[in-house]
Specification:
homodimer, alpha/beta, about 15% strand
């Protein structure tokens, strides 16, 4: 049977139902596309917790986080660790952020209802087999700083996959890979790709497709294999098919 | 916990994995958006089997059938029968059809691999508690004619919800409702809406929103409440948010 992610059950479903209201700060968020919560394993088999920033257009369509260009860079990073499935990803914010991680956004991220709810979520994701937390970017780094549960866990703080300078980003990621490789157990049957990022720009070979097991049932088979969506207006997204057959 | 449809399990997932190839007839279908299979109950609790024609842009986005304008008309029809959840819907074709149900399309629908696979699916949907089959439109009527398993079942053959003449469509649907009401048991706690369609055009009050339990996890809460998507090019869909909060 083709793999897919049926969505959360039990405590995660309940926790997401009980998400904090963003009403008071809605001017900074793309509320109209709704909240988007996670990608990956919720069944306790994740050994790495990944923290990103906020969903963009590809994620609005897929209803999972880190599936577009940034997500495919992260997936390539995980391949270098030998991780094919034993990870779970959540974001700093459940709605798309308008603008950058500026002081106001950080203040929102640290506000009591949002921080408390997110810390509860991270506590639920942390298990006895958590080997590392990878916080991509400044927003995610703050999330970890605000999370008491991070104490005792190895936390990597690489630059965000959408960082403006590719060369700097790749150099930065290369500094984190060896530290993570000593701590993260590869998935069974998966050989870590031990090559560092070479050259100044991301090539197709540096990216990895989003696995079908991370996506909802019945999505086109090209979902998560390229850049598929962008906003054409605040309330409209263009969604492009990436192959002749879906 | 908020309801959603996690997708198929077991025999249905396997059957959909084993879908027939449309390669030989791909000129007539929008293959790039992928196959879309169903909406509603797969757990044996459906008392009515609904057959539609093929998915359009709203269905491409939602990855469930009959969720757009036509689907909301069908949902309003089901409300008149007192059905809130005990139904399952499948289509004549799993890909979007280019053009109308013409002789060529009917020939494709009746070709051995497509017909045989679809009949197996319908056999899986038919249970001891199936009270009626509702085949909307000419494509679906042919599907039932080609399905040996329909023998012994009550089959309604109303016009398709996208029929070009609203007045004629509404009159036609009014002729089927009384026949179906005598056969279909309303869902517990649901009072059938016994009023016929009045006037020549569809009003908002004739439509019903697609229930969250029929849609995948985590979709915006306005999904299935209006017309949200349309094709802007063969490989591109515009997806519009229908409310300030999703």
């Amino acid at each position: 049977m083709a793999e897919f992610d049926p969505g959360p059950t039990g405590a995660f479903a309940t926790h997401w139902d009980n998400r904090p209201s963003y009403s008071a700060v809605k001017a900074r968020f793309r509320m109209n596309w709704g909240p988007i919560y996670y990608r990956g394993r919720l069944d306790g088999t994740a050994r790495v917790i990944i923290i990103g920033q906020d969903p963009a257009a590809d994620e609005n369509v897929a209803r999972r986080i880190l599936v577009g260009a940034a997500g495919q860079r992260v997936q390539g990073f995980l391949r270098k660790l030998g991780l094919a499935k034993s990870y779970v990803m959540v974001n700093t914010f459940i709605y798309g952020l308008k603008g950058q991680i500026d002081p106001e956004a950080k203040q929102i991220s640290g506000s009591a209802p949002i921080k408390t709810w997110r810390n509860q979520l991270l506590d639920m994701l942390k298990t006895g087999q958590t080997e590392a937390v990878i916080a991509f970017g400044a927003g995610a780094a703050q999330v970890v700083d605000l999370w008491p549960g991070a104490s005792g866990l190895f936390v990597a703080r690489p630059l965000h996959p959408s960082f403006r300078d590719d060369a700097q980003l790749r150099t930065n990621w290369n500094t984190w890979l060896p530290q993570l490789r000593t701590r993260v157990t590869p998935d069974p049957g998966v050989t870590p790709d031990s090559t560092p990022y070479a050259g100044a720009t991301f090539k197709k070979s540096d990216l990895a497709d989003i696995p079908a097991r991370d996506l909802p049932f019945g999505v086109p088979k090209w979902m998560g294999t390229g850049d598929m969506a962008w906003r054409t207006a605040p309330t409209q997204i263009a969604w492009k098919s990436l192959a002749a057959e879906g």
